[in-house]
Amino acid sequence: MTNAKQVIVLGGGYGGILAAKKLGKLFKKDDNVKITLIDKKPYHTMLTELHEVAADRVPEDSIRIEFEKVFAKRKVDFVLDEIIDIDFKGNTLKSEKGTYKYDYLVMGTGCKPTYFGIPGAEEYTKKLWSYEDAVGLKEHILHMFREAVKEPNAEKRRKMLTFVVVGGGFTGVEMIGELAEWRDRLCKDFYVNKDDVKLYVVDALPKILPIFPDKLIKRAENRLRKLDVEIVTGAGITEVKPGSVIMGEKGTIEAETVVWAAGVEGADLLDNIEIEQKGRKRIVTNDKLQSVDYDNVYAVGDNIFYIPEGEERPVPQMVENAEHSAPLVAHNIHADIKGGDKKSYKPAFHGAMVCIGGKFGTAHVGLPGKFFGLPSFFAMLSKHFINLLYFFQVAGFNKCWSYVMYEFFNVKDNRSFVGGHLAKRSPNFWLFPLRLFVGFKWLMQGWEKLPSILENPSNIFLIPPPVSGGASATAAASATAAASGAADAVSQWGEALPVPEFISNIVSWTMDIFFYTPEGGYTKLAEIFQAGMVIGEIVVGLLLLAGLFTALASIISVVMGLMIWSSGMAPTEMLWYFAAGIALIGGSGSTLGLDYYVFPILKKWWKNTGFAKKTYLYID
Ligand SMILES: Cc1cc2nc3c(=O)[nH]c(=O)nc-3n(C[C@H](O)[C@H](O)[C@H](O)COP(=O)(O)OP(=O)(O)OC[C@H]3O[C@@H](n4cnc5c(N)ncnc54)[C@H](O)[C@@H]3O)c2cc1C
Prior knowledge:
Layout (H helix, E strand, L loop, with lengths): L4 E6 L3 H13 L6 E7 L3 E3 L4 H5 L9 E3 H4 L6 E4 L2 E5 L4 E4 L3 E3 L2 E4 L3 E3 L7 H4 L1 E2 L3 H18 L5 H7 L1 E5 L3 H21 L7 E5 L11 H13 L2 E4 L6 E3 L2 E3 L5 E3 L2 E4 L3 E3 L2 H4 L4 E2 L3 E3 L12 E3 L4 E2 L13 H20 L12 E6 L3 E8 L2 E5 L1 H34 L22 H24 L17 H12 L2 H5 L9 H14 L9 H23 L3 H17 L6 H13 L9 H13 L2 H6 L5
Parallel strand pairs: 1-2, 1-9, 2-5, 9-22, 11-18, 12-13, 12-18, 13-14, 21-23
Antiparallel strand pairs: 3-4, 6-7, 7-8, 10-19, 15-16, 16-17, 20-21, 24-25, 25-26
The structure holds flavin-adenine dinucleotide.
């Protein structure tokens, strides 16, 4: 192991994390290669969601994932450390704690805000480039409202309730949009008149979102104006002072809160290292994404300065660039170590989207040369879909589940593009009587049939007999009931609900294969199935009564209802079994049921199993 090749990924952002995971996969069975990811934080931060935390739409933790969780049971070691210098000739990373030797290095240290030397910009503005920034900004906004309401001086109060975002690009527009959406809640909670709150987005360029076509810019502007955001364009900031932002000839806005979202440059480390850089501290690479100075140093994501063939501009500092570059870099390092052809970076970008709050978005997407605008609903839908795809790669089901929960089910103030329709508001104790009732009904259904199957298991009364020529299932069922002597069990279902013909045909076809002998009798499987149904009814009934594994029991209840319906034997009564089953899925056993006690224990045990860690099949 001491002679193992050391591959170090520096920075676990969008590019670094995917590169490390891919390297882990490629060298899974190779003990001669060691992969380490070093980051100054113990978690990966979803930078694209920062504004959602800053404006209190989603919980703080929702935008972080611990590296330990991401790399659990994988061939990637995580080291928490901040690298302050790199000796490229000696292949060594340096931190205050020590040094790290590498054979191959992936640079993924990302960006930080840039202030263009504007006086006061760094000192007197809030930034939005990390988890801590987002949490700090949220606390600051709350503090402003909390204090403003007590402020007797009108001018001071106005300044406290004025919020300026500098930068009309994606980050700035998303931040001001999110804040505008939060404003109603803030005003309500702190007894502030909505008209006293002023929101501005300011940009030096003549328009916001300049990479969008004019039609989409208009849509975004209309939305912002609808949310009472004032858009100030052509306003280059000349100075920021405590309590005011000066926009040259365009005047001054008095505001206690100025958020800086006006441009980026490479992370601090890039100031200290000797490697060819261009375009505000990006590492110049060749088409294989190797540094032009050191061919064992690769770059991913925002660190890359590379102009693809036929293009005029370097690759954009966006998530898609990080996602495309990561697997390519992993492949090329694999080729370096194991031999084989390296790939050239030929990224095809699919556009950009901007969300203004949780309910509105606009997007310009497509394939190179064929781009089109997406209406709000589809823009939001694709944003969530893209995020889910990314989260699935990083932390599988676990992260996707929590994302869906906080974006759709645990939303506050209807701040989701599907409004509050999916929001889980009703306390589960309202479902307690329903759970007992459905449980009792299933138990009774099974209990009444039990003597028949115990007495004579080959007496089939829950499966219609084979009927040639497609006789109605109801008739078949009645015939079976009469023939079987189990009239009580069947007749209590009453008149059957209609079943579409294509479903009847599928069911008949399946039954022909599994349940009927060529001679017109029943197979052994039919007996087992019938006994299983009866036992299933009893078990589901007992589980619902006890409130144990209620989600599973409710799902089985729904499936049994569907099976009975599709076999043409379900009366109208079955509709409420079905509807009640759906209502009970969402945690009805968590109050006044055994799930309340059993689930936390099971969850804790399951989360710690190697299988769950490796597959991410658990919820937090
Ligand atoms: C608020 C906001 C909104 C955005 N919205 C979008 C969007 O909607 N769509 C889009 O495509 N892009 C968006 N971006 C840009 C996108 O987030 C970046 O392009 C992407 O994060 C780049 O990924 P990366 O891996 O290069 O770097 P990052 O994700 O920035 O990760 C860098 C990592 O390196 C670590 N690091 C840095 N220096 C050191 C050091 N010296 N030692 C150890 N570790 C270090 C950091 O802790 C971090 O984990 C947004 C950015 C922000 C800030």
